[in-house]
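Re: the 421-residue chain
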Amino acid sequence: MADENSGSMTWFKQLKYLGPGLLVAATGVGAGDLVAASVGGANFGYTVLWSALLGALFKYALNEGVARWQLDSGKTIIEGWRYYFPAWVSYYFLVYLVIWSFIVGAALSGAVGLAAHAIFPIFSVAVWGIIHAVLAFFLVLFFKYSFFEKIMKLLIIFMFSLVIINTILSQPDWLQVWKGISFIKIPKGSIWLILGIIGGVGGSVTILSYAYWIREKNWTHKEDMKKVKIDLIIAYLLTAFFGLAVMVIAADVKPEAISGNKMVLSLAEKIGETSGYFGEWVFLLGFWAAVFSSMLGVWQGVPFLFADFMQIKNKSSVSDATLPKVESSKNVIQQKYYRYFLFFLAFPPLVLLFLQKPVWIIISYAVIGSFFMPFLAFTLYYLNNKHNKYLKAPRYINILLVLAFLLFAFLMGFKIYNMLL
C-alpha cells in the first residue's frame, strides 16, 4: 500500500484521503453563501454569477497559502504573525476573532433556524437556532475528529447533490447563465451584495481552520503539498458550483420575498413549481444540511485559533513537537481555552436571534468577514515569499494574492466611502 505521505501518489489514489478540503467547503458554504447568494440572485439575476467564481478562486489561493506556510515552516499562520510581525498584529487578529465569532455564532444559529423552521414550523426560528447550537456544541465537545469528518462528508455530499439537482430541475436560461459567468458586470446598487457573495464563498476566518485539520490527517511534510492542492482544488470547485447553483435558483424569486423567514420558503416554492412537492422538500433538506454543516465546521475549527493564540501567548506554542498530528482535537478540547471559546461561539451570540432579523445578521457576517481578507492576503504573501525555505509561492499564487488584496481592499473602501456620504 502506498504511503499516505508519499508525494508521488496518483490523483486517483489521493482522492480517498480527501477530507480537510471538503470540511473547508462544507464550513464555508452555509450562512454567507446561501443567503448572500440568494439575495444577489433575486435582485440581480444572472448578472452577478461571476462573483461566486471569483470568490472561490481567491479563497483557493488564500487557503493554499495557509497550508504552504505551515508545511514549509512547521508553524501555524498565527505563529507566523506572532514571530515575524509586530506584536499588535496578532492582538489585532485576537480582537477581530472575538468580534467575528460573536457575529458568526448568531448568523449560523439564525441560518439553521431558518432552514429548520421552513421544514418543521412547530418552533420559531430562534428556538430552532438554539436547539442546533446546543447540539453542535455537544457533538464537537465529545467526539473525535475522525467522527466529525465522516459526518461532514455525508452532509456535504447530501447538500451538493440536492442543490445541483434542484438547479437543473429549475430549468434556467443556460445562455444567460453562461453570460453571467463569463462577463463581469456590476449593476447599480449591487456592490454590497457582491461583497457579501465574494466574502462568503469559501469562508473567511474559517480558512485558517484548514491548517489544524491537515494536521489531523497527518499532512505535516512539504511532500504533502501535492495532496493539499488536489484537496483544495476539488473543495473550491464544489464551492463555486454551489454558489452558482443557489444564485441561479434564486434568479426568478421576487426580491421582496428574500427577507426574514420567507426567504427559504420562497426558494423552496420556486423549486416546487417545476419539480413538485418532493423537489420542494429536497431543497429544504439540502438547505438545512448546508447551514448545519457550516455550524459544525465553525464550532469545531475556530476554537483551535483561540487556543493556538493563547498557547503562544503563554509560551506553549502549538508546534509539531507539542501538538499530536492525529486526533489532536481530543487533546486540544481538553484544554481550557478550546472549551471556553467553543462555549463562547455556541451560547452568548444566541441573544441576537431575538432581534428577529436573521437574514440581516447573516449578510452582516459575510460582509464583516471580508475585512479579514486584505490582512490575510498581505501577510501570506510576505511569509511565503520572505521566510519559506522550500515551498516558495509560485507566480500564479502570488498574483492571485495581490489581486485578492487589491479587490477586497477596494470593495471595503468603496463601501466605507458610501457609508460616510
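The CA atoms of residues 260 and 359 lie 6 Å apart.
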